[in-house]
Specification:
about 230 residues; alpha/beta; three-stranded mixed sheet; two-stranded parallel sheet; elongated
Length: about 230
Amino acid sequence: IWLEMEIGITGGEEDGVNNEDVDPEKLYTSPEQVYSVYEALSKIGPMFSIAAAFGNVHGVYKPGNVVLSPERLLKHQAYTKEKIGCEDDKPIYLVMHGGSGSTDEEIKTAVKAGVIKMNIDTDTQWAYWDGLRAFEKEKHDFLQGQIGNPTGGDKPNKKFYDPRVWTRKAEEAMRERVGVSMEKLGSKETYTASTEPGSPQLGEKKLDIVQTAAFVAAGAVAGSVITLLAKKK
């Protein structure tokens, strides 16, 4: 299990929590605060990352209203390196919350400072909606009724208003947006796709055809017995 610890305050508003008017100084965590969390979690195990605040906000705001300082993350790394006496310049796995709307340079600086994950919820939300918006704009005349469109007054429109169609367009737009972030984070084509077969969840062994057939047969027999008993009553 991997643990991600968020420390400090992320500005903006998300999930009903509004930090838009918070003291700006509270949007930046100190090297001492980051190390305190690192020290505590290291005693448990190495499977953790830290989302340190460096001016991050949830949502997207007008340029100039948000002062993101990813260069501060290098100070966290240097402080922790000195404290633990390691050779690695970046001993902490860092996470960037509120990454939506960040400039390419800000993202690049954050990655160089040891960020291994970036949250872009707002950007992917917009991408999802934008995919739907574009579909509606293109197929507008086919989405005004169940029957009747520019190709004929008796033509059905099911293949246009079917949720499986327009949600797919939204998902495709979101997928493309995720791809953009992968390029900016430098993770595109970094690892070769695995050819190993997937494993069942929780280590459960998949049932083979014989076992599946046995369960179906057992269910049918049980159902017949119950039906006969019910008729006798």
